[in-house]
Design a protein that fits this description.
Number of helices: 7
Radius of gyration: 17 Å
Strand order of the largest sheet: 4-3-7-1-2-6-5
Shape: globular
Mean pLDDT: 90
Bound molecules: flavin-adenine dinucleotide, FE2/S2 (inorganic) cluster
Distance between the termini: 28 Å
Oligomer: single chain
Structural class: alpha/beta
Low-confidence stretches: none
Number of domains: 3
Helix content: 10-25%
CATH class of the largest domain: Alpha Beta
Length: 265
């Protein structure tokens, strides 16, 4: 784990109109920010995150590592929340500015060498850590299917990363792919996968929790909860699991789906 001053290389605005979090809070717009920080980039693995100091007025904020480029640049893909102090500050950075970050943090996804068919299930901003995982697994010659659900067809332009990934889309308005929720298609793909990785909003997890299909196989899920320290000190991110209380920042953010006590979250 390294604390460093990362230089902003570039920042690109990516619109995801109509995206709304399950708690009803709007996302104003989405961006990618590229940070030059070789010490963290070298160590990073898919599913891990960084804590970013977003100005003097707030505690650091957690963001998944979206991609690593050239072994030295970290890409974060994030949404500016309505009235979000930290995300607004980060969105206002410019190339050449420096940003204090701590990472890589958390356990990351566990990928078995013997797994060949990898299924990724993403909802909205949940695509952020899954792209890094897709890229890594494709480079190892694995077969990757991404099931991706959004409200409408305007979404993150991921084509360059995903040229070799089979993408299954679902949109709530039917503008592309399946008309409805991506979770409705899961039974069709679940059985064929050697391993399953899920990242999306809490509402998606709660829906899945009540489906039989999720109990038929183990799946790894990346959790988003409020964090203060991000490194296991404050216990502010504790959740209840089948193996007792766990800190999402230190013991997670990736857990076995069926180990989590979803009713307590
Ligand atoms: C492990 C992890 C990885 C994440 N990865 C991403 C990512 O790749 N892209 C992305 O857009 N967002 C990601 N998030 C959510 C992101 O941290 C919040 O959107 C951000 O902290 C909001 O900050 P703010 O100051 O703008 O909002 P404010 O509302 O001003 O923040 C107030 C408090 O609420 C917390 N908070 C608000 N919304 C969330 C949320 N949805 N999840 C967790 N904490 C929240 C903040 O951390 C802060 O403590 C991740 C969260 C976690 C825990
Ligand atoms: S955020 Fe402090 S222990 Fe997890």
């Amino acid at each position: 784990m390294v604390q460093t001053e990362a230089r902003v290389v570039c920042i690109n605005e990516i619109w995801l109109p109509g995206l709304e979090r399950s708690n009803g809070r709007s996302l104003e717009f989405s961006l990618t920010i590229s940070l030059d920080c070789p010490d963290i980039a070298r160590e990073a693995k898919p599913g891990q995150f960084v804590m970013v100091n977003c100005g003097e007025k707030t505690l650091p904020r957690p963001f998944s590592i979206n991609r690593v480029i050239n072994g030295n640049e970290l890409i974060l893909f994030f949404s500016v929340l309505e009235n979000g102090t930290g995300t607004k500050w980060l969105a206002e950075r410019e190339p050449g500015d420096t940003v204090k970050i701590l990472g890589p943090l958390g356990n990351g996804f566990t990928i078995e060498e013997s797994s060949h068919n990898i299924l990724l299930v993403g909802g909205g901003m949940g695509i952020a850590p899954l792209l890094f995982l897709a890229e890594e697994e494709i480079s190892k010659g694995k077969s990757v299917t991404l099931m991706y659900g959004t409200p409408n067809k305007d979404r993150h332009p991921v084509e360059s990363v995903l040229r070799k990934v089979k993408v299954v889309n679902a949109t709530e308005d039917g503008s592309i792919g399946h008309h409805g929720m991506i979770t409705e298609l899961i039974p069709e793909y679940f059985d064929k996968a050697d391993q399953v990785f899920i990242c999306g909003p809490l509402a998606m997890y709660k829906y899945l929790h009540h489906q039989d299909v999720i109990k038929s196989k183990s799946a790894q899920v990346s959790l988003e909860v409020r964090m203060a320290c991000g490194r296991g000190i404050c216990y502010g991110c504790t959740i209840q699991t089948a193996n007792g209380k766990k800190r999402v920042c230190e013991d997670g953010p990736v857990f076995d789906f069926n180990d989590i006590d979803w009713d307590s979250i």
